[in-house]
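Team,

Forwarding the record for the chain on the shared tracking sheet. I've put the sequence and predicted structure together so nobody has to dig through attachments.
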Amino acid sequence: MIGFILAGLIIGALARLIKPGKQNLGLLATLLLGLVGSIIGGAIASFFGTGNMWELNIFGFIVSVIAAVLLIGVAESVMGRRHVRR
């Protein structure tokens, strides 16, 4: 469980570094988006048969970071819409 949380933080931090621009996301949002990205990446890697969903492999890690970058983009657009309405 601690490894899963640590992987989520690492994946979320890498995704924030890759995503251009300033993200207005806190540590908790980074952790959650990284965790969701790692679940998505693990599921996709498992689907392609590169390993179990819960084990670390290169393909799953790369897909996890890509999924987290996309999730950060979605979170930014949702938060941006929320700020425009005010």
